[in-house]
Description:
The chain has 8 helices and 7 strands, in the order E-H-E-H-H-E-H-H-E-H-E-H-E-E-H. It is α/β, with parallel strands linked by helices and 228 residues long.
Amino acid sequence: MRAGVLFSGGQDSTTCLAWALDRFDHVETIGFHYGQRHAVEMEVRAAFLAKLRAIRLDWSAKLGEDHVVELAGLGAISETALTRDESIAVGESGLPNTFVPGRNLIFLNYAAALGWRRGFSTLVAGMCEADFSGYPDCRADTLGAQMRAISLGMDRDFTLHTPLMQLSKAGAWNLADELGGDALVELIRTDSHTCYLGERGDLHDWGYGCGTCPACELRVRGWAEFAA
Ligand code: ZN
């Protein structure tokens, strides 16, 4: 009962990590460094793991190695607002320019290759099609096809769990509350990072962030709905 969690340090992946720790005996975390504009994401994830260990000793015992995979080449070939100094806008395709083409497909390949070596064939990730910007690599049918290709290509059955797939952001807060109560909700509120602009100046009731980028907008609205 081992699993690997795609862990960026955002609200979604921190919630997925708790979900995995609630279900599996041994959980490893995988982060990707792909030339993000803001290093804050990578800093936040290590601090989150340390604090999670402190508030939940039972989960700490199950929490294994944290892996960071270098994918600088992805940032170099994708001209997006996440990897370049560019303002966030919706492009002609109807997708925001925060879309890194195929990013989740690439992440899953690497996570599975790591799982092959580390002895887990179950992956957990925070993709969500209910309440996101319409990224085509977050959709259940895309991910199903990718996991089939991975299983065939590695000749081993890999499974992907996406516990947030049909949840709104408020639903994700509710799930965190069910899994870890106030302590987990508070940890995610103060120590996860979602903002596309890397803003961590003031702590708002919904957490840190600029409050106006598309990721913050979803987070602000979700928190308001959850807290109501
Ligand atoms: Zn923001």
